[in-house]
Design goal:
The chain has about 250 residues and is an alpha/beta fold. It contains nine helices and seven strands. The relative contact order is 0.17. Bound molecules: S-adenosylmethionine (SAM).
């Protein structure tokens, strides 16, 4: 499979840098996942890995008194998050850093909570689970969202899309079994509601695509990229009951 062209990424980021989040999620879902962790230390040390422009970083800052380090490899997302942190007076306890979530800046056993929405699969879930486990203090939590099959028999169109996007995608049971094999206890999990796909992700993305079409008029490659991003939204509209995002809350045993 050829990798996308530089032009593809230019148009892709023209869409993704202008929307509130870069994957499904919501403040309510973050609050539910946090509740599944049970009591945290009063000022937990938190890593938010693959933070994007930081929608969930800001939720975590509101929902906890934690000291948060948010990391993303795409520097423009980090710049956006830094701006939001400054506007909200949060720079004292929340830091945004451009970097690689495969090597977070944290000592072994020092982190109370690792959070990663829609990003762990970039490393491969097994690799992420293994890399991040030693960073947690015993009893610390890893909370992440992951694309999963919700039905064993998805239509061919959906299977084809995910075969291109994420061929290793599995189901909820597969993820939980993997987590257990990697030394975690499962504290809980739930499927994100459809509103978490639309409110801050696909609806803003549809508006952004519509706004960009005049900019790229006559540019067939760019318009093709916009159409392909829009196609993913249409597929979700038609077949969103066959796959979803699962919030998975894990605990490092002692
Ligand atoms: C689907 S987006 C999710 C962003 C954000 N958590 C959200 O839900 O809105 C995945 C993010 O992971 C980041 N990413 C991918 N590989 C990374 C790596 N090795 N280190 C740091 N960030 C990475 C991407 O730049 C992207 O912002």
């Amino acid at each position: 499979m050829p990798s996308p062209s530089p032009r593809f990424w230019e148009v892709f980021f023209d869409v993704y840098e202008a929307i509130p989040r870069q994957g499904p999620g919501s403040r309510d879902c973050a609050a539910c996942a946090l509740a599944l962790c049970g009591p945290l230390p009063s000022a937990p040390t938190i890593l938010d890995l693959g933070c994007g422009s930081g929608a969930q970083t800001l939720h975590l800052a509101e929902l906890t008194n934690g000291t948060i380090t948010a990391i993303d490899s795409h520097a423009p997302f980090v710049v956006t998050l830094e701006r939001h942190l400054a506007e909200r007076g949060l720079t004292g306890r929340v830091a945004a850093r451009a970097g690689n979530m495969a090597a977070p800046p944290a000592a072994p056993g020092s982190v109370d909570l690792i959070w990663s929405e829609g990003a762990a699969y970039f490393l491969g879930i097994e690799q992420a689970l293994k890399l991040w486990h030693p960073l947690l203090r015993p009893g610390g939590h890893l909370v992440f969202t992951e694309a999963v099959w919700l039905r064993p028999d998805p239509p061919a169109e959906v299977r084809e899309m995910w075969a291109k996007e994420y061929p290793a995608m599995t189901d909820i049971a597969g993820n939980l079994a993997l987590a257990t094999r990697c030394g975690y206890e499962v504290s809980g999990h739930f499927t994100l509601p459809d509103s978490a796909w639309w409110d801050d992700f696909y609806h803003p993305m549809e508006r952004r695509i519509a706004a960009l079409r005049p900019k790229y008029a006559g540019d067939s490659e760019a318009l093709g990229t916009l159409a392909s991003i829009g196609g993913e939204i249409e597929l979700h509209r038609r077949f969103g009951d066959t796959y979803g995002y699962e919030f998975i809350v894990l605990r490092r045993g002692n």
